[in-house]
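Reopening this ticket.

The earlier resolution said the output was attached, but the attachment link was broken on my side. Pasting everything inline this time so it's all in one place.
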Amino acid sequence: MIVIAAATEYDAYLRARETAAKRPPVGSTSARGGVLLPGQAVLAPVLSAVFLLPGYALRLHGAHPTFSEALLTAGWIAAGTAAVTILAAGTSLLVTAARNRTAPLGDGPIHDDQAAARAWEAWQQALPEHGILPFLHRQLQQEQPAGTGRPPLPLSLHQPAFHRA
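Inline output:
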C-alpha cells in the first residue's frame, strides 16, 4: 500500500536507470586486467613452501646436504619474490580502490546519469509524501479501543491492514 502510492515515480526511476545502464560509462576502460601479478602473488608463496619444507627436512636428517642447500636457496628466492609480488599486488589494489572510490553510504545510489539521479530523488520525496504519511494519518484517525484509556498504537503487527498485500 505504501509503495504503491509512489509507483509512478518509481517507474520513472526504473526507466531512467535502465536508460543510463545501456550507455557505456564516460571514461570507462577495458575490464581486462593483468593476471600475471595476482597469479604470481598466489603461486609464489606456495612455490617457496614446496622448496623450503623438503629442504629443511633433508637438512634435518642430514641426507643430501648439497641438494638440501639448493632447495633452501630456491625456496628463499621464491619467498623473496612472493614478498615483492604481494607488496606490488597490494599497492595495485589500493590504487584501484582509490581510483574507483564511491560516495559514503547513506547518500543514495550513485548515478553518473543526472536524469536517473533526479528520478531517484523524486521517488524518495514521493514515498513519504504519498505513501508513509497518509498511512500514518489513517492509522491515527482510527477509533480508540473502548475501555482501554490509552490511544491505539499507530502501527501494529496484529492489525489486519498490516498483512494485506
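Reporter confirms the inline version is readable. Residues 4-22+35-101+113-142+155-163 form one domain. DSSP finds five helices and no strands in the chain.
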